Amino acid sequence: MSWRFRPLRRRAFLKGAAALAMLSCVPNALSAEDATGVQPRTGQEGTAKDIVMLHGASEGGWCFDKFRGVFEGLGWTCHAPDLIGSGKDKAGVDEKLGLTNYRAEFAAFLETLPPKPVLLGHSRGAMLAQLARALILVSPAPRAGILPSSDSEKDLSQSLMGIASFWKTLINPDFDLACFYSLNLVPKDRRRAVLDKFGPESGLAYFEMFFWMLDKTQAAAVDTNAVRCPVLCLSGTDDNLVSLETARVGVAPYRGATFWEQPGHGHMLPVEPGAEDIAPRIEGWMHHFATR
After folding, report:
1. Which site among 114, 168, 227, 235 is 20 to 30 Å from 253 CA-CA?
2. pTM for this structure?
3. Distances from the Cα of 131 to the Cαs of 12, 25, 83, 181, in angstroms?
4. 32-59: per-residue pLDDT in tens?
């Protein structure tokens, strides 16, 4: 695929980096052929059918509405929490929030559920999700140690470097940037409505992700050796925010990981047309690996 590039003005980036819905990454599984043929699931002895879906930057649990409808119809109990400052809690965002805060909040939420549910993370949400009996990564953001592989990814990092102390501020969504980077496969007449659900994001969280090499806390680091569960990764061929190559590098350390390349999809795959068709395939994979 060819990348079309538009220079990012300082002000435009400061207003809009949050709309990029960030990246993400984590871990392990098998083959797409195992996920065909889906029927309603009943009678799985001793196995709670809980799935937790964690959103990316600036998003909220709302981005999984299409997936939720399919999964619940097939017998799964779905949880899609809003992290602080996201979804219905936009007012709670703080420029001092970092990945460590988000990870701790998510861990506390998991403590309220049956042990080791299936986890599905979109973008940054995939970076925060690790310990599960099965893990699904959608448009995964790169963890610490992974460098950008496409021109568009590099351009974002360069633009951030031109903003003084961006890690001390909040970054708000910008419609034009979102249309290019993350909403490019969302129908044009729906893009504004989707963006209106986005909220501001902490500049500190962006710093920890984009400039992990300068982050003393290594908040974006993932212990790949600790991930032992089956892992499925989905990445759109037209994702202008996290390229296919970056996504593949992210899952490479996880033995047996399944990678599904999704033609005609971008970064916001869960809200794009066709999400309802992808969800049953995901459920088939979950049933194969997570309900034994």
Report:
1. 114
2. 0.78
3. 37, 13, 18, 30
4. 333 333 333 443 444 678 999 999 888 9
